[in-house]
Design brief:
Distance between the termini: 88 Å
GO molecular function, one term: [glutamate-ammonia-ligase] adenylyltransferase activity
CATH class of one domain: Alpha Beta
Oligomer: single chain
Number of strands: 15
InterPro entries: GlnE (IPR023057), GlnE_rpt_dom (IPR005190), NT_sf (IPR043519), PII_UdlTrfase/GS_AdlTrfase (IPR013546)
Helix content: 55-70%
EC number: 2.7.7.89, 2.7.7.42
Enzyme class: transferase
Cofactor: Mg(2+)
Radius of gyration: 38 Å
Length: 1005
């Protein structure tokens, strides 16, 4: 504490006193505080949070008191340091309480002398006396029902004034240490006192309500008021809603009127009285009997409602009935963690809380942001729910008491509990100071450019310069430090005790029993907690340095895993990956030093069954998870560079098997990179499709080149024919998905002087060898080369000459084969031959004058047949991504029908890509712009969903499942906000339904 100078010969300048307003000298003169006898007063005033505000309010108080009254106050201030601390403290910190004092300045006498916090009974008596309340006919020590003599606006005014007096005394005592060497009131004491004040206020409001509703007769109903939330836990803020629930016997209209009137009076006089936590929320009955409450919680209550009951406490009214309510419902709280939907409901609640805060306020929001009060409260309540059934010592209501009990039971590390308590109390102190300023409900720090507001807050929170930083700098540093500490401890809170129980990092820690560890893992989302515990033991086993690093990493890694759709699979995958990289020193160092890498890895492992094996075989991809100058390094890769690398790498080997193995290795790396970026939401659908098509094309080209080289070496001569591979279907359109096969045609042309039969035989050998090499059994995603679209289908030769293809298409091809050619594109082999093939088929796929109406009718007939016959048995046509309503086939057939009809007139339709052709259709106004957008959105939605299915399931799947954990994972991987499975499915069905209407119009035209 800064002491005033002992010399009385000089008056400090207003700047040194923290007075910056131009009116300060005149205001000091008005108080006659410009003489040397006022030095101590002035130094005390300078320590107020806002000395100018305190001085200005004192002038108003002086004017209201008059000369005689001011002389008394002035004399008291000069001799009573406690009064100085309390008065200057409250006037410098709260404009609202300053206004309250200025309105009736005689209230200052409540702050003089030896001031003590009133007892709860004293608070009740004072409020009841303000409205002349006396015990109702049914009142007793356990039935706090009184009848007021004053009702209406007069009662509200009297209650408001008395309650504000009580708050002024508490705030003055709370703030006195800022100014003078007065005792600091602990945070818990302030919370208890505010809760006692709230109970007293509710008791007085009920007394006025009784007199209003039953002016002549005793209250006919037993009515209990149950405090919930912060009031129930006796940790109330200065300004907060007071949550209540009503129990009545009987719960008739009279009881409902009484409860409603009490809420109205309480809200008008004190604070918002909120009954939204009652059964069925605001739509439910305001008042219920005890039996009705019990029946609701036994049949209908959700997890959050049991969580709310953690803090339930009888507050006023019929306390015996309130205790019956508590005794009946409190045991049900401790079974909530065993409910089937406990984990998803808890995760959904947490997401909803995070989404409530606008992004621009997250760094300033101390209640709901990251590293906030809610993080502490949510974590503590979750641990109470998990372990409270087996350990009754955890059945406490306040956050601080619960943290103490959790530490005592070994469920939370003792140091972690102490640090978390300190950070929680710090943020609650900041919250209290923010609310005191104007007595407004707020939890948001002033913006960074409001230096005056932040400096006031710092001083009100008793923060002084520390030699390096001014008070504002100290505040900013402390807010950041405590938010960061809460974020860090939030993970350790759940997982450090688990790891202590398996790795014994802290030999003095109590650790969790196996049963407690399994309960905790189950509550954190692990459906096989016994297996998860085994994985933790394996990861941290032994005394090796790697085991110790794992134990340090795992609390944070496990928290990130708990936010993924399948933490069980994620933890198993992490163990497998760690085992595979046991000898790679860089691996754990990368996870330890690059937080972004570790978080991205956990997101991927807990979301995708497709990726773990790829990452185990291509671990260097993990290095690309790190951030570079432009974001994650995995985005710095050009797929075309990868394709060139695949061709160059395979070209080093003469043996086709080794060449294909080299190509596979780079493909594996690229698939891991692309799929990882996709799961993380870093690539859009067209980018994914182009990258997958590029790598497929490169591997196909590498295999073809290797086989041709080997054959020429074996023959000792140049190959007897040139050969080209024509991509068809989604490969030809450069729109491959993870589960797509490569549809191709092989075309050859004999070298000059080579017999055609020999050339074709050789080319068939090459094609068979390529398909065999690529289709060889492997744990990698398959490389199936499908030649089913060749002339005569699976009965025709695999390879034909260019002339043979031309003759077939001219004489024998059917309408569907011309349609298939719309997606033909040269992808590998001899580029000149590939180009000549495409030029040759142009006359069939883009015929001069367009296709005939008979061809259009045939296409429509085939489409109808596909719709009725090709959907797999048991598939849901509304959610089959390929063949279902508005799915990929619908969109692609629609685009291709328009190409067949109009490509001869619109050169832009000469395109094998569905999306690019849709652009051309829109540009040529062949469909309305809205129709084009509906088709595009449906194609992108279905492709995204189909890709997400493969990423989640690890194998090609076209059918979206019904609401389930798998669908939630698909929704999350598909980038649906919040990963809400039902909303994702509703959106999918809405988009595809609208697109189907366009499809039906086009095919019905």
């Amino acid at each position: 504490m800064v002491k005033p100078p002992t010399a009385r010969s000089t008056i400090p300048g207003v700047g040194r006193l923290g007075l910056v307003e131009p009116s300060a000298p005149a205001e000091l003169a008005a108080l006659d505080w410009v003489n040397t006898d006022s030095v101590e007063l002035l130094w005390s005033l300078s320590r107020a949070a806002n000395a100018d505000l305190a001085l200005r309010t004192l002038v108003r108080v002086k004017d209201a008191l008059g000369e005689e009254g001011w002389a008394e106050l002035d004399a008291a201030l000069r001799t009573d340091t406690g009064l100085r601390g309390r008065l200057f403290g409250v006037l410098g910190a709260s404009t609202a309480l300053g206004d309250h004092l200025a309105a009736d300045p005689g209230r200052w006498t409540r702050l003089r002398g030896h001031v003590q916090l009133p007892t709860k009974q004293q608070l009740v008596d004072e409020l009841l006396a303000s409205v002349g309340a006396v015990p109702d006919g049914s009142a007793s020590p356990t039935n706090l029902v009184y009848r007021a003599a004053v009702t209406g606006p007069d009662a509200v005014q009297a209650l408001r004034s008395t309650y504000r007096n009580q708050m002024m005394v508490l705030a003055a005592m709370d703030l006195a240490a800022i100014v003078e060497n007065e005792p600091v009131i602990p945070y818990q004491v302030v919370g208890h006192q505010l809760s006692d004040m709230a109970d007293a206020a509710l008791t007085a409001a009920l007394a006025v309500a009784v007199a209003t509703i039953h002016p002549d007769d005793p209250c006919p109903s037993r009515l209990a008021v149950i405090a919930m939330g912060k009031c129930g836990a006796r940790e109330l803020n200065y300004v907060s809603d007071v949550d209540v629930v009503f129990v009545a016997e009987p719960a008739d209209s009279s009881a409902s009127r009484l409860a409603g009137e009490m809420m109205r009076i309480g809200t008008s006089a004190f604070f918002e009285v909120d009954a939204a936590l009652r059964p069925e929320g605001k739509r439910g009955e305001l008042v219920r009997t005890l039996d009705s409450h019990i029946a609701y919680y036994e049949r209908w209550a959700k997890t959050w409602e049991f969580q709310a009951l953690l803090k339930a406490r009888p507050a006023t009214g019929d306390l015996a009935l309130g205790q019956d309510y508590f005794d009946a419902l409190n045991p049900k709280v401790w079974t909530a963690a065993e409910r089937e939907d406990f984990v998803p409901e808890v995760q959904a609640m947490r997401r909803r809380v995070e989404e409530m805060v606008p992004p621009e306020l997250r760094e300033r929001e101390i209640k709901l942001g990251r590293g906030s009060l809610r993080d502490v409260e949510f974590a503590v309540q979750l641990l109470q729910l998990v372990h409270g059934r087996a350990d009754e010592s955890l059945r406490v209501q306040s956050t601080i008491d619960a943290l103490t009990a959790l530490a005592a039971g070994g469920y939370v590390g003792r140091d972690d509990a102490a640090n978390l308590t300190a950070s929680y109390e710090f943020l609650r102190l900041i919250e209290h100071r923010l609310q005191l300023q104007k007595l407004k409900r707020t939890h948001t720090l002033p913006p960074a450019d409001d230096e005056e507001g932040l400096r006031w807050l710092a001083r009100a929170a008793h923060m002084r310069p520390d030699g390096r930083l001014d008070s504002l700098g100290v505040l900013n540093a402390e807010v950041k430090r405590n938010a960061l500490r809460i974020r860090r401890l939030h993970a350790k809170l759940f997982y450090r005790p688990l790891l202590d129980s398996v790795a014994r990092l802290d030999k003095e820690a109590l650790g969790l029993s196996s049963d407690a560890a399994i309960r905790q893992l189950a509550a954190l989302g692990y459906s096989a907690p016994e297996n998860a515990l085994g994985h933790l033991k394996a990861l941290t086993s032994g005394a090796s340095r790697k085991g110790r690093i794992q134990a340090l990493l795992l609390p944070t890694l496990l928290e990130w895993l708990s936010d993924t759709p399948d933490p069980d699979a994620g933890l198993l995958a992490y163990r497998r990956l760690s085992d595979a990289l046991m000898d790679a020193e860089w691996y754990l160092r990368l996870l330890r030093d690059e937080g972004a890498v570790a978080k991205r890895l956990m997101t991927i492992l807990g979301s995708s069954a497709y990726l773990p094996d790829l990452l185990i075989k291509a671990p260097d991809v993990l290095r690309t998870f790190a951030d570079g100058p432009n974001g994650p390094r995995m985005l710095d890769v050009d797929p075309q560079d990868v394709a060139r690398g695949i061709l160059a790498s395979s070209a080093r080997y003469d043996d086709p098997t080794r060449a294909v193995a080299a190509a596979r290795s780079l493909r594996r790396h690229e698939l891991a990179r692309v799929a990882s970026a996709d799961v993380l939401g870093l690539l859009d659908v067209p980018q994914v499709c182009r990258a997958l098509s590029s790598v497929w094309t490169a591997v196909l080209g590498a295999a073809l080149d290797a086989v041709v080289r080997a054959s020429e070496a074996e023959l000792g001569d140049e190959a007897p024919a040139s050969i080209a591979v024509i991509g068809m279907g989604r490969l030809g359109g450069n729109e491959l998905g993870y589960g797509s096969d490569a549809d191709v045609l092989f075309v050859c042309e004999p070298r000059p002087g080579v017999d055609e039969t020999r050339a074709v035989k050789w080319a068939n050998m090459v094609a068979d060898r390529v398909r065999t090499l690529l289709g060889a059994p492997s744990t990698d995603p398959p490389l199936e080369v499908d030649t089913g679209l060749r002339p005569e289908g699976r009965n025709g030769p695999v390879v034909r000459t260019l002339a043979s293809y031309q003759a077939y298409y001219r004489q024998w091809a059917q309408a569907w084969e011309f349609q298939a050619l719309l997606r033909a594109h040269a992808v590998a082999g001899d580029p000149d031959l590939g180009l000549r093939f495409l030029t040759m088929v142009d006359e069939f796929r883009y015929p001069e004058g367009g296709v005939t109406e008979s061809v259009v009718r045939e296409i429509r007939r085939i489409k109808a047949r596909v719709d009725s016959e090709r959907l797999p048995r048991g598939a849901d046509p509304a959610t089959h991504t390929k063949l279902g309503r508005g799915g990929l086939a619908d969109i692609e057939w629609t685009v291709q029908l328009i190409q067949l009809r109009y490509a001869h007139e619109v050169p832009g339709l000469h395109n094998s890509s569905t999306l690019e052709t849709l652009d051309a259709i829109g540009g040529a106004e062949l469909l309305a712009e809205t129709d084009v957008e509906l088709l595009r959105e449906s194609w992108l939605t279905a492709t995204k969903a189909r890709n997400a299915l493969v990423l989640v399931r690890g194998k090609p799947v076209d059918q979206l499942p019904g609401p389930s954990r798998v669908l939630s994972a698909v929704a999350q991987v598909a980038g649906w906000p919040g990963g809400d499975a039902n909303e994702f499915l509703d959106n999918y069905m809405r988009v595809t339904r609208r697109a189907k209407a366009v499809v039906e119009r086009v095919f019905g035209a």
